[in-house]
Here is the input.
Amino acid sequence: MTPASKPIRRIATEEAFSIPEVAAGLRDIARAPGNSLDLTLVERIYDAKVDDVQARLLPRLLDLEKERLKDMDANGVDMQLLSLTAPGVQMFDADTAAELATLANDKLAAVIKRHPTRFAGLATFAPQSPKRAAKEMGRAMKKLKLNGFILNSHTHNEYLDNPKYFPILEAAEDLDGCIYIHPRAPSDGMAAPFRDYGLDSAQWGYGIEVSTHAVRMLVSGVFDRFPKLKICIGHMGEAVHFWLWRLDYMNKNAQNRGSAPKTKLTPSEYFKRNFVITTSGQESHLALDFSIKALGIDNVLWAIDYPYQPSTPAVAFMDSAPVSAAEREKLYHGNAERVFHIKPA
Ligand code: 1WB
Ligand code: MN
Here is the structure.
C-alpha cells in the first residue's frame, strides 16, 4: 500500500468494560440501603428492572471478544484502551476492593494477551488502601504490562489531593503511568442540586465531579510534590481548559489571602504540563479546535466512550475534523502511544 492510502491507526482511549465479579458486587450495592448519587447509575445498569437501552449496557460492558471486536472492525477502530467502568471498585470495602482490582487486572491482561494488537488496558487499583494500591499499580505495569491507570474520581468522597493518597501518586509518577480520572456521580457533599432532571449523569454531573477533582489537584500543590505525574481527563477536558485564565487570576487572589497554598506554577501551567485530555463523548469540532489551541496538539487524544456512546459518529467526528494529516495522526494514535506506552504499529 502506498503511504497515501495507508489507513490511519485509530486507538480509542476511554473504552469501558466490566467483569462479572464486579458487576455482581455492584448489584448487591444497588440492593443495599444507601443514598449516594452513584446509586442511580448502579441501579440502572447493574440491577436493571426493565429491558431497555440501559439494561442492554451490562452485556456490552462484559463482552470483550465478540460484539466489541465486531464493532471495532466495522468502524475501523484498531485498538481500544480498556478501563474498568465507573464506579470501578471504589464503592466496596477496602479488602473486597483490593481483591477485585487484582482480579480485574489479571483478566484484563489475559484479554490483551489474546489480542495484543486490538486491546491495551488501564489498571484498576483500590484507593481505599493506598499502600496496597501502590503495590498493585507496580505489579500491573511491570508484570502485567498494563498501560497506565484508571481512577473513577472520588473514593468515599475524597479526592487525590488528600495526602493519604500520596503513595498512589508517587507510584504513578515512578512508573510513568498516567492516571485517567473518569467520572462518576458527584460526591455526597455536592449531590443535592444534581438529584433532579437526570443531572447526576453524563448529562452534567459527571463533568462537574471530574473537573472539580482536577481543579483540586491543580491548586493544592500536588504537582510541586509530584512534578512528573500525568493525569488524563476525558469529555474534552471536562471544560477545565475553558476556565484557565480565570483559575489563574482567582487562584492568585486565593493564595494572597491565604486560602490556597502557594505553588511554584499557576493552574494553567500545571494543566499544560501534567494533564492530557481526550475527546470521549464530546463530538464538537468547535470544542476540539479550542482544545488544540489552548493545550497544544500533543495533549489531545481521541476516544469513543464505548459502549456508552456509538463508535460510528465518534470515528466520523475525528475523520472529518478540520486538522492537518499530521495532527490527525497525533489525535488518533501518536499521543496515545506516547502517553500510554503503546507500541507504535
Ligand atoms: C453513562 C455514561 C454511564 C458514562 C456511565 O457509567 C458512564 C451513561 C459508568 O450515559 O449512562 C460515560 O463514561 O460517559
Ligand atoms: Mn466513559
